[in-house]
Amino acid sequence: MDTTRSEQIKAGLQKSFRSGKSSKASTVCYGYRIDSKGKLKIHPNEATHVVYIFERFAAGDSLGKISDGLFLMDVPSPTGKEIWSKETISKILSNEKYAGDVILGKTQVKNGIQVKTIDLSTKTTLTNHHPAIISKELFDSVQKEKSRRHRLRER
């Protein structure tokens, strides 16, 4: 059976995900840097802001209120803007990396467009991959709160 180049690339990515050796696992996000060995390490100043974002959301603050708080503390966004977008804050709140884990294969390209993966067999989770900025309990609590707020908006 002949496989297409695309299928070969996907199979190679899956193999690197399962082995835990994919460079995608160490993609840098706000609050982290890469050390000399290519591993994620905590950037203390930014980590303080990540903790603030998670704790304020868990305490009931809206994304807009968190953005306002960061502005009042004179904390520039990850792109250097004065005002943090609600989307940036939401993405931080959804990123499992802050709890020390990595999920590989969350998205795939279909017809040239990146979409979320539905097929769980293509996802690989690396737990305790790097130092966590927040506890898994806080991360899980925030995910439940995000889901609760989303359900309220749909009514």
What does the model show?
Helix content is 44%, strand content 13%. The protein has 155 residues and is α+β, with helices and mostly antiparallel strands. It has a single domain, classed as Hect, E3 ligase catalytic domain fold, CATH 3.90.1750.20. The strands form three sheets. It has a two-stranded antiparallel ribbon with strand order 1-2. Strands 3-6 form a two-stranded antiparallel ribbon. The protein has a two-stranded antiparallel ribbon with strand order 4-5. Strand 4 (107-110) and strand 5 form a beta hairpin. Helix 2 (44-58) packs across helix 5 (136-154) and helix 3 (63-72) crosses helix 4 (86-94). The longest helix has 19 residues, at 136-154.
